[in-house]
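quick one, three chains, predict together pls
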Amino acid sequence: MSLGDPLPAAFYDRDPAAVARELLGAVLRHDSNDGVISGRIVETEAYLGPHDPASHSAVGRTARTWHMFGPPGTAYVYFIYGMHWCVNAVVREDGYGAAVLIRALEPLEGLPLMRARRPKARHDRELLNGPGKLCAALGITRAQDGLPLTGGSRLTICAGDVVPDAAVAVTPRIGISKAADWPLRYVLR
DNA sequence: ACGCGGATGGCCT
DNA sequence: GGCCATCCGCGTA
């Protein structure tokens, strides 16, 4: 595995917090029908599995959460608040039900297309700084739910520069009510 | 620079 | 029926 190659399934088949930490600096890329859009991952959250009360997998394997229980390196895309899509990378072994939510990116490729898909963004800093915003900008919807992120699909995560611990902040997860004090959010500054 | 509430729909109970 | 792993606009400073 070197810089720019897709991260393999073995990268994801590990402790969710470690994967969330190490996804910082990696690159999420969507080869959409309208063009390639990519960004550097700068914020993530770990959802540990069925025993984590804030995790979607805590309700079991339903139609909505189906792909969260898929093999490591699968995209789990869900619809929330009647308007927004959010994208996760499935972690741990096939059938377990853990994932890492991608919460923010820094723009790399496809700036004009991002701006067209995010007309409300008043400057480029607001294009990808939220889980719903980055899915809108990249064109990620239910159509990408279940795709492998490990290569061979149009949605991939590729290795980036190594990020030193001094550049990483760890905080509680955002926007949840259960297990809201667990420090599983990773931010690159 | 904050804080608050409405939008909006699928899904679980 | 009520709850969301959110975003945006409007209000007060």
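The mean pLDDT of chain A is 97.
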